[in-house]
């Protein structure tokens, strides 16, 4: 056996072993009483925030720039709350996903009003939904439980993880209640199939859209949390091209294990031609309001502002951003 083939086989073996170890750990967490899960989450949050200092510099920089009006005491409180929610997102999720469907929809991931989606289904076979890394996004796949009651099938757009073990584990977790995963590079083809089928089925395509755009995709910048920020416009382009309505999924955190979601309209094709990036700007404003309402529930450890505006002289700047830049010059 060649050295290259041996290395590939060793890597595959390591991934398989990692997968089964993590699956066993997730199974154990799912069976623990809630009192132990809560205790583990608090202990893990303390370890991450106070002992290890996981991405502490990134988190503190992001928070201080996003909330210049807040005192150091207020920022540190948000930081501690963030670490706690972050811990819950990983440790409590296996337990949450092993609750009964009735308990999930009534106690953990609540969608009190599906009327906007029902109304959209009268005119369209597919809707697009934008959301962010807010609350416990791993719970979002359980939304299929309620979507089924109004005739929707859920697709979640995702980017495969580098670790095959983690990718397999999270894929199983996210598809547990019937939602499907569709890789980012294949979603346009799926949408075309949905639109052309006209077979009476209705599709719900969910896209997490608060990541930093990759190189070559940072074409639009706006003022987001007091900073020049590149915003992904893929969902806008898909909605315009295929004449599909777009919703923003607003999430309210009631506790680390209870969330209420509401569908807010971003775009209706009946609006006609809108200036480019209008929908993307609407998304940015709703996402920003969501974060400002409860800052700690957002993913502050993400390097959201790693692509500065100066590197993209040809990018489109929103009116709001230009006003911010002009104000900074005057001061």
The helical percent reads: 40-55%
- Total count of helical runs of at least 4 residues: 13
Uncertain stretches: none
Molecular shape: globular
Strand order of the largest sheet: 1-9-8-2-5-3-4
The major β-sheet equals: 7 strands, mixed
What is the N-to-C succession of helices and strands? HHHHHHEHEHEHEHEEEHEEHEH
Q: Helices and strands: which structural class? A: alpha/beta
Overall pLDDT score: 92
Radius of gyration: 21 Å
* Separation of the first and last Cα atoms: 68 Å
Number of strands: 10
Strand content: 15-25%
Helix/strand layout:
Layout: H1 3-31, H2 34-52, H3 56-66, H4 72-91, H5 93-97, H6 101-108, E1 109-110, H7 115-121, E2 126-131, H8 144-147, E3 152-158, H9 164-174, E4 180-183, H10 187-197, E5 202-208, E6 220-224, E7 227-230, H11 234-242, E8 246-255, E9 258-267, H12 278-293, E10 316-317, H13 319-330
Parallel strand pairs: 1-9, 2-5, 2-8, 3-4, 3-5, 6-10
Antiparallel strand pairs: 6-7, 8-9
Task: Give a concise summary.
This protein is α/β, with parallel strands linked by helices and 331 residues long. 49% of the residues lie in helices and 17% in strands.
Core attributes:
alpha/beta, seven-stranded mixed sheet, 331 residues, globular
Molecular structure report:
There is one protein chain. The chain is α/β, with parallel strands linked by helices. It is 49% helix and 17% strand. The protein has 13 helices and ten strands. It has helices at 3-31, 34-52, 56-66, 72-91, 93-97, 101-108, 115-121, 144-147, 164-174, 187-197, 234-242, 278-293, 319-330, and strands at residues 109-110, 126-131, 152-158, 180-183, 202-208, 220-224, 227-230, 246-255, 258-267, 316-317. The strands form two sheets. It has a seven-stranded mixed beta sheet with strand order 1-9-8-2-5-3-4. The longest helix has 29 residues, at 3-31. The relative contact order is 0.14. The mean pLDDT is 92.
């Amino acid at each position: 056996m060649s050295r290259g083939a041996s290395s590939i086989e060793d890597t595959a073996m390591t991934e398989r072993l990692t997968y089964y170890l993590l699956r066993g750990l997730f199974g154990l967490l799912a069976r623990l009483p809630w009192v132990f899960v809560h205790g583990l989450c608090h202990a893990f949050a303390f370890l991450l925030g106070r002992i290890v200092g996981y991405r502490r510099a990134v988190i503190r920089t992001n928070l201080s720039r996003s909330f210049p009006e807040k005192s150091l005491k207020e920022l540190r409180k948000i930081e501690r709350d963030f670490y706690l929610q972050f811990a819950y997102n990983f440790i409590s999720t296996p337990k949450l996903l092993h609750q009964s469907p009735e308990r999930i929809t009534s106690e953990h991931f609540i969608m009190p009003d599906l009327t906007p989606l029902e109304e959209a289904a009268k005119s369209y076979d597919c809707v697009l939904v934008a959301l962010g890394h807010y609350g416990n996004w791993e719970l979002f796949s359980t939304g299929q439980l309620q979507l089924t009651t109004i005739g929707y099938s859920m697709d979640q757009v995702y980017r495969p993880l580098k670790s095959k073990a983690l990718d397999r584990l999270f894929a199983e977790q996210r598809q547990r209640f019937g939602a499907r995963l569709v890789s980012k590079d294949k979603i346009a083809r799926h949408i075309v199939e949905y639109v052309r089928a006209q077979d009476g089925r209705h599709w719900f395509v969910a896209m997490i859209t608060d990541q930093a755009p990759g190189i070559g995709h940072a074409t639009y910048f706006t003022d987001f949390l007091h900073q020049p920020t590149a915003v992904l416009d893929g969902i806008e382009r898909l909605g315009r091209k295929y004449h599909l309505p777009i919703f923003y999924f607003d999430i309210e955190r009631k506790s680390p294990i209870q969330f209420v979601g509401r569908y807010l309209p971003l775009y209706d094709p009946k609006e006609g031609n809108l200036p480019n990036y209008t929908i993307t700007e609407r998304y940015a404003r709703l996402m920003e309001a969501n974060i400002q309402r409860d800052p700690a529930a957002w993913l502050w450890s993400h390097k959201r502002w790693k692509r500065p505006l100066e590197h993209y002289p040809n990018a489109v700047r929103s009116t709001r951003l230009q006003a911010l830049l002009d104000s900074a010059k005057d001061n």
